[in-house]
């Protein structure tokens, strides 16, 4: 894991995730219908067990968060994810830049939604999110 000046620990998600340790989970942006055709969602299907037709939650070694139904919905799904991560300390969740690709949101719009994950030790966030969360 990389280190960031704003977060000197090891809770930075790598820019490229090509494989996972047995306890790691790839966290990606999805749509409500679970049509994982592009971006990180496609990677999740190809490599990490995401399920076509499942838009949210744990799927194999991945976890989908609906990022295509508006910021309000995404915020609710992120809160659900944070609670799920807290309930599963045996897993390490690698959050990608959810909502900042195909969904079209900026890091400054999405990063604050992950404030609830700041103190969840088994969640890593992209360096760009940490830069805004401080």
Can you tell me the overall shape? globular
Task: Report the radius of gyration as a whole number of Å.
Answer: 13 Å
* Main sheet: strand order: 2-3-1-4-5
* Count of alpha/pi helices: 4
Mean pLDDT: 91
Percent helix range: 25-40%
Proportion of residues in β-strands: 15-25%
Structural class: alpha/beta
One letter per element, helices H and strands E, the order comes to: EHEEHEHEH
The biggest sheet, with number of strands, parallel, antiparallel or mixed sense and barrel status, is: 5 strands, mixed
How would you characterize the overall build of this protein?
There is one protein chain. The chain is of the alpha/beta class. Helices cover 28% and strands 16% of the residues. It has 4 helices and 5 strands; from the N terminus they run βαββαβαβα. The protein has helices at residues 39-48, 71-87, 107-110, 127-133; strands spanning 24-30, 57-59, 62-66, 92-95, 123-124. Strands 2-3-1-4-5 form a 5-stranded mixed β-sheet, sandwiched between helices. Strand 2 (57-59) and strand 3 form a beta hairpin. The longest helix has 17 residues, at 71-87. It is globular. The two termini are 18 Å apart. Residues 1-8 have low confidence and may be disordered.
Compose a concise summary of this entry:
By secondary structure, the chain is an alpha/beta fold. It is built from four helices and five strands.
């Amino acid at each position: 894991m990389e280190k960031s000046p704003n977060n000197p620990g090891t809770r930075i998600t790598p820019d490229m995730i090509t494989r996972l340790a047995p306890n790691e989970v790839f966290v990606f942006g999805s749509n409500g219908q679970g049509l994982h055709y592009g971006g990180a969602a496609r990677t999740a299907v190809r490599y990490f067990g995401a399920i076509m037709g499942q838009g949210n939650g744990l799927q194999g070694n991945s976890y989908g968060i609906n990022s295509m139904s508006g910021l309000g919905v995404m915020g609710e799904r992120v809160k659900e994810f944070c609670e799920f991560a807290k309930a599963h300390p045996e897993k390490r969740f690698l959050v990608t830049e959810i909502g900042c690709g195909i969904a079209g949101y900026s890091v400054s719009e999405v990063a604050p939604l992950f404030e609830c994950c700041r103190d969840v030790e088994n969640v890593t966030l992209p360096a760009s999110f940490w830069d805004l969360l401080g």
